[in-house]
Amino acid sequence: MERQSSGQGMPRQEEVVAVRKNGDGDIVELKLSSGAVVDYKAAQAMAKNNEIFNVNVFKGRDQEEHLRSNPDGRTDNNLDNLPLF
Fold it and tell me: pLDDT tens, 73-83?
């Protein structure tokens, strides 16, 4: 389901519906509501451009950029808890 962003005239936002993880359990690809599959770096760029609903980029303790779900008090929509594909 695509979400409309809050700003008028803004493009519709995709939603992350599933993730693919590597052997270490790290997310390497994300499946979006449109059916598109994007790698982690592409998803980071999309999040920075406000193209993905409920996801943001932050700098971790390792000084690297990471994706995370916006905090909303729920755990079922956290990226690590989404279905695998």
Answer: 999 999 999 99
